[in-house]
Amino acid sequence: KPSLFVSLFAAFVVLSFCSVVNAKTVQLTYANFFPPTHVQAQLGIDWAKEVEKRTNGQVKFVHFPGGALLKGPEIYDGVAKGIADVGMSVFAYTQGRFPSIEAIDLPLGYPSGVVATKIINDFYNKFKFKEFEQVKILYLFAHGPGLLSSKKPVQKLEDIKGLKIRSTGTSALVSKALGAVPVAMPQGAAYEALQKGVVEATWAPVEVLKGWKQAEVIKYMINCYSIGYTQGFFVAMNPGKWNSLPKDVQAVMEQVSREWLQKTGEAWDASDMEGRKFSEGLGNQTIKLSGEESARWVEAVEPVFDGYIKAVEPKGLPGREYVDFIKGQLKKYK
Protein backbone atom coordinates (compact mmCIF):
# COMPACT_ATOMS: atom_id res chain seq x y z
CA LYS A 1 0.00 0.00 0.00
CA PRO A 2 1.21 3.53 -0.76
CA SER A 3 0.68 4.65 2.83
CA LEU A 4 2.78 1.75 4.10
CA PHE A 5 5.49 2.53 1.54
CA VAL A 6 5.52 6.18 2.59
CA SER A 7 5.74 5.24 6.26
CA LEU A 8 8.60 2.84 5.64
CA PHE A 9 10.41 5.40 3.51
CA ALA A 10 9.98 8.08 6.20
CA ALA A 11 11.29 5.71 8.86
CA PHE A 12 14.27 4.93 6.67
CA VAL A 13 15.02 8.64 6.23
CA VAL A 14 14.79 9.26 9.99
CA LEU A 15 17.05 6.33 10.80
CA SER A 16 19.53 7.41 8.16
CA PHE A 17 19.55 10.95 9.55
CA CYS A 18 20.11 9.66 13.08
CA SER A 19 22.98 7.54 11.84
CA VAL A 20 24.57 10.55 10.17
CA VAL A 21 24.15 12.62 13.35
CA ASN A 22 25.64 9.86 15.47
CA ALA A 23 28.48 9.44 13.00
CA LYS A 24 29.29 13.12 13.36
CA THR A 25 29.28 13.03 17.18
CA VAL A 26 32.80 12.84 18.56
CA GLN A 27 33.20 11.41 22.05
CA LEU A 28 36.18 12.74 24.01
CA THR A 29 37.63 11.56 27.31
CA TYR A 30 38.59 14.20 29.89
CA ALA A 31 41.06 13.30 32.66
CA ASN A 32 41.25 15.47 35.77
CA PHE A 33 43.19 14.93 39.00
CA PHE A 34 40.93 17.18 41.11
CA PRO A 35 38.30 15.40 43.23
CA PRO A 36 34.87 15.61 41.58
CA THR A 37 33.51 18.03 44.20
CA HIS A 38 36.36 20.52 43.76
CA VAL A 39 35.40 23.82 42.12
CA GLN A 40 38.04 23.42 39.40
CA ALA A 41 36.77 19.94 38.55
CA GLN A 42 33.29 21.42 38.30
CA LEU A 43 34.57 24.23 36.08
CA GLY A 44 36.18 21.65 33.82
CA ILE A 45 32.85 19.89 33.50
CA ASP A 46 31.08 23.20 32.85
CA TRP A 47 33.62 24.03 30.13
CA ALA A 48 32.90 20.71 28.46
CA LYS A 49 29.14 21.22 28.72
CA GLU A 50 29.46 24.64 27.14
CA VAL A 51 31.45 23.15 24.25
CA GLU A 52 28.79 20.46 23.83
CA LYS A 53 26.06 23.08 23.82
CA ARG A 54 27.70 25.42 21.34
CA THR A 55 28.63 22.60 18.95
CA ASN A 56 25.04 21.33 19.03
CA GLY A 57 26.17 17.97 20.33
CA GLN A 58 28.90 17.42 17.76
CA VAL A 59 31.21 16.80 20.72
CA LYS A 60 30.45 14.80 23.86
CA PHE A 61 32.76 14.39 26.86
CA VAL A 62 33.23 11.51 29.26
CA HIS A 63 34.79 12.78 32.51
CA PHE A 64 37.30 10.99 34.73
CA PRO A 65 37.87 13.22 37.82
CA GLY A 66 39.91 12.36 40.90
CA GLY A 67 42.68 10.63 38.94
CA ALA A 68 40.32 7.85 37.85
CA LEU A 69 41.90 7.58 34.40
CA LEU A 70 45.28 9.24 34.94
CA LYS A 71 46.96 10.57 38.09
CA GLY A 72 48.02 14.22 38.15
CA PRO A 73 51.69 13.63 37.17
CA GLU A 74 50.59 11.29 34.35
CA ILE A 75 48.08 13.57 32.65
CA TYR A 76 50.36 15.56 30.34
CA ASP A 77 51.99 12.45 28.87
CA GLY A 78 48.66 10.63 28.91
CA VAL A 79 47.13 13.35 26.74
CA ALA A 80 50.17 13.46 24.45
CA LYS A 81 49.93 9.68 23.93
CA GLY A 82 46.14 9.68 23.50
CA ILE A 83 45.27 7.77 26.68
CA ALA A 84 43.00 10.76 27.39
CA ASP A 85 41.81 13.18 24.74
CA VAL A 86 41.72 16.17 27.11
CA GLY A 87 43.38 16.60 30.49
CA MET A 88 43.71 19.09 33.33
CA SER A 89 46.68 19.06 35.66
CA VAL A 90 49.49 21.12 37.17
CA PHE A 91 52.95 21.59 35.64
CA ALA A 92 54.72 21.41 39.02
CA TYR A 93 54.02 17.67 39.27
CA THR A 94 56.77 17.16 36.70
CA GLN A 95 59.49 19.50 37.97
CA GLY A 96 62.16 20.15 35.34
CA ARG A 97 60.00 18.99 32.44
CA PHE A 98 58.70 22.50 31.63
CA PRO A 99 61.52 24.90 32.60
CA SER A 100 60.01 27.98 30.94
CA ILE A 101 56.63 27.87 32.69
CA GLU A 102 58.32 27.23 36.05
CA ALA A 103 59.09 30.95 36.14
CA ILE A 104 55.40 31.46 36.95
CA ASP A 105 55.79 29.42 40.15
CA LEU A 106 58.44 31.67 41.68
CA PRO A 107 57.54 33.32 45.04
CA LEU A 108 56.74 36.71 43.52
CA GLY A 109 53.92 37.76 45.86
CA TYR A 110 50.86 37.09 43.72
CA PRO A 111 47.80 38.94 45.06
CA SER A 112 45.02 36.75 43.62
CA GLY A 113 44.03 33.90 41.35
CA VAL A 114 42.60 36.33 38.80
CA VAL A 115 45.94 38.14 38.48
CA ALA A 116 47.96 34.91 38.45
CA THR A 117 45.75 33.49 35.67
CA LYS A 118 46.07 36.65 33.58
CA ILE A 119 49.83 36.60 33.96
CA ILE A 120 50.36 32.95 33.04
CA ASN A 121 48.40 33.48 29.83
CA ASP A 122 50.23 36.74 29.06
CA PHE A 123 53.48 34.86 29.62
CA TYR A 124 52.50 31.97 27.34
CA ASN A 125 51.15 34.22 24.60
CA LYS A 126 54.35 36.29 24.55
CA PHE A 127 56.88 33.45 24.50
CA LYS A 128 54.95 30.47 22.98
CA PHE A 129 57.13 27.81 24.61
CA LYS A 130 58.31 24.90 22.47
CA GLU A 131 58.13 22.58 25.48
CA PHE A 132 54.35 22.26 24.96
CA GLU A 133 54.55 21.05 21.36
CA GLN A 134 53.43 17.51 22.24
CA VAL A 135 49.92 18.75 23.05
CA LYS A 136 47.39 21.38 22.02
CA ILE A 137 47.11 23.88 24.88
CA LEU A 138 43.46 24.92 25.29
CA TYR A 139 44.00 27.25 28.22
CA LEU A 140 46.22 27.87 31.23
CA PHE A 141 45.33 29.10 34.69
CA ALA A 142 46.96 29.63 38.07
CA HIS A 143 45.82 29.56 41.67
CA GLY A 144 45.74 32.35 44.22
CA PRO A 145 48.67 33.07 46.56
CA GLY A 146 50.31 29.91 47.82
CA LEU A 147 50.79 30.24 51.58
CA LEU A 148 51.94 28.09 54.46
CA SER A 149 49.51 26.04 56.55
CA SER A 150 51.02 24.30 59.55
CA LYS A 151 50.39 22.09 62.55
CA LYS A 152 52.86 24.27 64.48
CA PRO A 153 52.86 28.07 64.92
CA VAL A 154 55.21 29.91 62.57
CA GLN A 155 55.61 33.58 63.50
CA LYS A 156 59.16 34.25 62.37
CA LEU A 157 61.79 32.83 60.07
CA GLU A 158 63.44 30.90 62.89
CA ASP A 159 60.22 28.91 63.47
CA ILE A 160 60.37 27.39 60.00
CA LYS A 161 63.87 25.95 60.39
CA GLY A 162 63.76 22.17 60.06
CA LEU A 163 59.99 22.08 59.53
CA LYS A 164 58.92 19.21 57.25
CA ILE A 165 56.80 20.83 54.55
CA ARG A 166 54.84 19.15 51.77
CA SER A 167 56.12 20.82 48.63
CA THR A 168 55.84 20.47 44.87
CA GLY A 169 58.00 21.98 42.17
CA THR A 170 59.34 25.42 42.99
CA SER A 171 57.78 25.44 46.46
CA ALA A 172 60.35 22.78 47.40
CA LEU A 173 63.08 25.31 46.57
CA VAL A 174 61.26 27.92 48.66
CA SER A 175 61.18 25.47 51.59
CA LYS A 176 64.93 24.93 51.34
CA ALA A 177 65.64 28.66 51.06
CA LEU A 178 63.67 29.27 54.26
CA GLY A 179 65.56 26.51 56.08
CA ALA A 180 62.75 23.93 56.06
CA VAL A 181 62.80 20.33 54.88
CA PRO A 182 60.77 19.88 51.66
CA VAL A 183 58.87 16.63 51.21
CA ALA A 184 57.81 16.04 47.61
CA MET A 185 54.17 15.02 47.51
CA PRO A 186 51.09 15.66 45.34
CA GLN A 187 48.09 17.44 46.83
CA GLY A 188 46.04 14.27 47.06
CA ALA A 189 48.45 12.74 49.59
CA ALA A 190 48.77 15.81 51.83
CA TYR A 191 45.81 15.14 54.14
CA GLU A 192 47.01 11.75 55.29
CA ALA A 193 50.63 12.91 55.53
CA LEU A 194 49.63 15.83 57.76
CA GLN A 195 47.33 13.61 59.79
CA LYS A 196 50.06 11.03 60.43
CA GLY A 197 52.84 13.56 61.00
CA VAL A 198 54.82 12.58 57.90
CA VAL A 199 54.84 16.33 57.21
CA GLU A 200 54.19 19.18 59.63
CA ALA A 201 53.10 21.83 57.15
CA THR A 202 52.14 22.35 53.53
CA TRP A 203 52.44 24.99 50.82
CA ALA A 204 49.17 25.58 49.02
CA PRO A 205 46.51 28.16 48.25
CA VAL A 206 44.10 28.58 51.15
CA GLU A 207 41.34 26.87 49.15
CA VAL A 208 42.80 23.43 49.91
CA LEU A 209 41.78 23.85 53.54
CA LYS A 210 38.21 23.25 52.42
CA GLY A 211 38.56 21.84 48.90
CA TRP A 212 40.85 19.06 50.11
CA LYS A 213 39.66 19.20 53.77
CA GLN A 214 43.16 19.96 55.02
CA ALA A 215 41.84 22.39 57.65
CA GLU A 216 40.99 19.26 59.63
CA VAL A 217 44.68 18.36 60.00
CA ILE A 218 46.41 21.76 60.45
CA LYS A 219 46.18 24.38 63.19
CA TYR A 220 47.67 27.56 61.73
CA MET A 221 47.44 29.61 58.53
CA ILE A 222 50.49 31.83 57.96
CA ASN A 223 49.79 34.92 55.85
CA CYS A 224 53.19 35.09 54.13
CA TYR A 225 51.78 37.05 51.19
CA SER A 226 55.09 38.76 50.42
CA ILE A 227 56.38 35.45 48.99
CA GLY A 228 53.00 34.16 47.81
CA TYR A 229 53.68 31.86 44.88
CA THR A 230 51.34 30.31 42.37
CA GLN A 231 51.38 27.17 40.25
CA GLY A 232 50.52 26.90 36.59
CA PHE A 233 47.75 24.55 35.48
CA PHE A 234 46.91 23.43 31.98
CA VAL A 235 43.96 22.11 30.04
CA ALA A 236 45.44 20.37 27.03
CA MET A 237 44.27 18.16 24.19
CA ASN A 238 45.83 15.37 22.18
CA PRO A 239 47.05 17.05 18.96
CA GLY A 240 45.91 14.24 16.69
CA LYS A 241 42.42 14.38 18.12
CA TRP A 242 42.43 18.17 17.89
CA ASN A 243 43.46 18.11 14.22
CA SER A 244 40.69 15.62 13.46
CA LEU A 245 37.99 18.03 14.65
CA PRO A 246 36.10 20.27 12.20
CA LYS A 247 37.32 23.87 12.12
CA ASP A 248 34.05 25.21 13.54
CA VAL A 249 34.35 22.87 16.55
CA GLN A 250 37.95 23.98 17.11
CA ALA A 251 36.80 27.61 16.99
CA VAL A 252 34.15 26.93 19.64
CA MET A 253 36.68 25.23 21.94
CA GLU A 254 39.09 28.13 21.65
CA GLN A 255 36.37 30.71 22.28
CA VAL A 256 35.01 28.89 25.34
CA SER A 257 38.58 28.46 26.62
CA ARG A 258 39.16 32.23 26.44
CA GLU A 259 35.97 32.83 28.39
CA TRP A 260 37.00 30.35 31.06
CA LEU A 261 40.16 32.23 32.04
CA GLN A 262 38.29 34.81 34.12
CA LYS A 263 36.02 32.12 35.54
CA THR A 264 38.91 29.98 36.78
CA GLY A 265 40.69 32.95 38.40
CA GLU A 266 37.53 34.13 40.12
CA ALA A 267 36.78 30.59 41.27
CA TRP A 268 40.23 30.31 42.89
CA ASP A 269 39.70 33.57 44.77
CA ALA A 270 36.19 32.64 45.91
CA SER A 271 37.37 29.21 47.06
CA ASP A 272 40.30 30.80 48.92
CA MET A 273 37.78 32.84 50.91
CA GLU A 274 35.70 29.74 51.58
CA GLY A 275 38.80 27.82 52.63
CA ARG A 276 39.75 30.50 55.14
CA LYS A 277 36.24 30.64 56.61
CA PHE A 278 36.09 26.86 56.82
CA SER A 279 39.44 26.71 58.60
CA GLU A 280 38.57 29.47 61.06
CA GLY A 281 35.28 27.71 61.75
CA LEU A 282 37.27 24.70 62.94
CA GLY A 283 39.21 26.93 65.35
CA ASN A 284 42.41 27.24 63.34
CA GLN A 285 44.38 30.44 63.88
CA THR A 286 45.71 32.95 61.35
CA ILE A 287 49.22 34.30 61.88
CA LYS A 288 50.01 37.61 60.19
CA LEU A 289 53.66 38.40 59.59
CA SER A 290 54.83 41.93 60.37
CA GLY A 291 56.19 44.10 57.59
CA GLU A 292 59.71 43.62 58.91
CA GLU A 293 59.30 39.85 59.11
CA SER A 294 57.77 39.69 55.62
CA ALA A 295 60.83 41.51 54.27
CA ARG A 296 63.09 38.90 55.90
CA TRP A 297 61.22 36.12 54.07
CA VAL A 298 61.53 37.97 50.76
CA GLU A 299 65.28 38.29 51.29
CA ALA A 300 65.56 34.61 52.26
CA VAL A 301 63.96 33.36 49.01
CA GLU A 302 66.03 35.61 46.72
CA PRO A 303 68.38 32.70 45.87
CA VAL A 304 65.40 30.86 44.36
CA PHE A 305 65.21 33.49 41.61
CA ASP A 306 68.95 33.41 40.99
CA GLY A 307 68.89 29.62 40.93
CA TYR A 308 66.08 29.54 38.39
CA ILE A 309 67.85 31.94 36.04
CA LYS A 310 71.15 30.06 36.30
CA ALA A 311 69.37 26.74 35.70
CA VAL A 312 67.48 27.69 32.54
CA GLU A 313 69.85 30.04 30.72
CA PRO A 314 72.34 27.25 29.82
CA LYS A 315 69.36 25.58 28.09
CA GLY A 316 69.05 28.58 25.82
CA LEU A 317 66.11 30.07 27.69
CA PRO A 318 66.00 33.78 28.63
CA GLY A 319 65.44 33.22 32.33
CA ARG A 320 66.05 36.80 33.41
CA GLU A 321 63.74 38.09 30.70
CA TYR A 322 61.07 35.66 31.91
CA VAL A 323 61.35 36.88 35.50
CA ASP A 324 61.44 40.55 34.54
CA PHE A 325 58.38 40.11 32.31
CA ILE A 326 56.35 38.48 35.08
CA LYS A 327 57.40 41.14 37.61
CA GLY A 328 56.33 43.81 35.13
CA GLN A 329 52.93 42.18 34.66
CA LEU A 330 52.49 41.98 38.43
CA LYS A 331 53.10 45.71 38.75
CA LYS A 332 50.67 46.33 35.90
CA TYR A 333 47.84 44.31 37.43
CA LYS A 334 48.46 45.36 41.03
Task: Describe the structure concisely for a colleague.
The chain contains 12 helices and 11 strands. By secondary structure, the chain is an alpha/beta fold.
Helical percentage: 40-55%
The separation of the N and C termini measures 78 Å
The quaternary structure here is single chain
Find the structural class using helix and strand composition.
Answer: alpha/beta
Would you tell me the overall average pLDDT? 92
Q: Let me know the largest β-sheet.
A: 6 strands, mixed
Strand composition percent: 15-25%
Give the tally of β-strands.
11
Kindly provide the radius of gyration, computed on alpha-carbon positions and rounded to a whole number of angstroms. 23 Å
Describe the structure in your own words.
The protein is built from twelve helices and eleven strands. The chain is α/β, with parallel strands linked by helices. The chain is globular. The model is unreliable at 1-23 (pLDDT under 50). It starts with a helix and ends with a helix. The chain has a six-stranded mixed sheet, with helices on both faces. A five-stranded mixed sheet has the order 2-1-3-10-4, sandwiched between helices. It has helices spanning 2-24, 39-54, 75-81, 113-127, 170-177, 190-196, 208-211, 239-244, 247-281, 291-300, 302-312, 319-333, and strands spanning 26-32, 59-64, 86-90, 136-142, 146-150, 164-167, 181-184, 201-205, 220-223, 232-237, 285-288.
